[in-house]
Amino acid sequence: MSPKAMVLRVLSVPAAIALLVARLLPSRSASPGAANTASAPAVLLAPPGGGNIGDEAMVASFIKNTPGEVLVVVRRRADIRILSTVENRVSVVEMPHLFYRRSLRALVDLGRYWRLLGHARSVALVGADIMDGAYNEDASVARAQALELARRRGLDVRVLGFSWNGTASARATHHLRRASESGVIMCVRDEFSLARIVRDGISSTRQVSDVVFALFGDPSEQDLPQRDRVIVNASGLVARDGNMTSTYANVCSDLVSRGYSVTLLPHVIRGGGDDLAACRAVAGRLPAGTVEVVEGLLSPFEVYDLCRRAALVVSGRMHLGVIGLCAGAVPVLISTQGKVEGLMKFFGLEVNAVPIVSGQVATLPAVVEAALDSLDEMSARVDRELARVRHLASGNFE
Fold first, then answer.
1. Selection from 37, 43, 11 nearest residue 115 by Cα
2. Inter-residue contact 263 to 248 (CB < 8 Å)
3. How far apart are CA 270 and CA 192, in angstroms?
4. In contact, 70 and 94? CB cutoff 8 Å
5. Which CATH class is domain 3-208?
6. pLDDT tens-digit series, residues 161-185
7. Closest Cα partner for 41 from 18, 57, 63, 22?
8. E-assigned strands of 129-211?
9. N or C: which end of the chain has fewer CB within 10 A?
10. Could you read off the pLDDT of 27-60 as tens digits, one per residue?
């Protein structure tokens, strides 16, 4: 074993300790103390956030759909913006080492988390695409262990609408299977993920849709503006798989030639996957003034308002597509992590999932063109299925 591997093995000791504690503690049929009262908070284990509109939207949906006091556990307080309208019933607690256990200080956060559970009425974790080990295996394992610990306190525990790819890591699978066996409810957000997770022996599953579908109202009940715009997102994460700037620029040019206004919209602004840099690069390939570039990170509700004026949303970020669907726009999404196809199947729009092949999205211009040619039909599908998908999203909170 290399010296680096030995150091990482030592630093992961807190994770092993957490697992040992979870296995040795007796399960309780009811949580103690304040957890049995209506005033106890519902605990939400938040996603990474830190400049990600999708993560903020998922947290906002949980808060909206959960009555009473809510306590949000974050890595850093600035990672998730909480709406001022709900600040009176929402508390935020920092636990920087609860899931990212590269320090023995994780033991401190594990102890704080255990004490917190004694005063909670429930625990929910935003699952999204961070449970199967594809991005950070250690953090996926730590999340599964935190869920099992909460079950040992006798709490209602669930993973909110998440995807499960076809190549989940063995460690992440093992620990999530243990969590499911302890009674954690697995809210899976598409039928392909459900089939994969059942195949991998994980039980206590529930078919839902993404929690963000439960955040917004029904667009059919609102006065809709003219849909003369197309929202385009060049994902900094997808861009790492190859230089797609010229392909996006060609798409934008074609859209403008069809008479659409084009807005380049960053969905994530942070190091390691900065959409703003990718969107600026696309704009830089076009004549000045051809497209509009949003230079900051909007709130989920500002994105929704923008999407209400859009006929089409072309995105490398899945949750921008979800917000677009909520606003009645047709999505064309770059397919990543095996999560897009299931979303599109809800609406019969599988043809609008664009694969990455050899680091490129060569078929993107053709898919966008076909979507525009079939826009009325596809819009009708979105209108027809949206109520059903929004109802499925409510299953995250039942």
1. 43
2. no
3. 30
4. no
5. alpha beta
6. 999 998 999 999 999 999 999 999 9
7. 63
8. 156-162, 185-188, 205-207
9. N
10. 554 444 444 556 899 999 999 999 999 999 999 9
The domain limits of the chain are 3-208, 219-385
Percentages of the chain per state (helix, strand, coil), in multiples of 5: 45, 15, 35
Identify the architecture of domain 219-385 in CATH. Answer: 3-Layer(aba) Sandwich (3.40)
At residue 222 the predicted structure's pLDDT band, cuts being 50, 70 and 90, is low
Q: Do domains 3-208 and 219-385 have the same CATH topology?
A: yes
Strands (E), the chain: 42-45, 70-74, 90-94, 122-128, 156-162, 185-188, 205-207, 229-233, 261-264, 292-293, 310-315, 330-334, 353-354
According to DSSP, residue 27 is labeled P
Sheet of 185-188: strand order equals 90-94, 70-74, 42-45, 122-128, 156-162, 185-188, 205-207
Contacting residues for 101 by C-beta, under 8 A, at least 6 apart: 11, 12, 14, 15, 138, 142
What is the reported pTM?
Answer: 0.91
- CA dist 264 and 80 (Å) reads 23
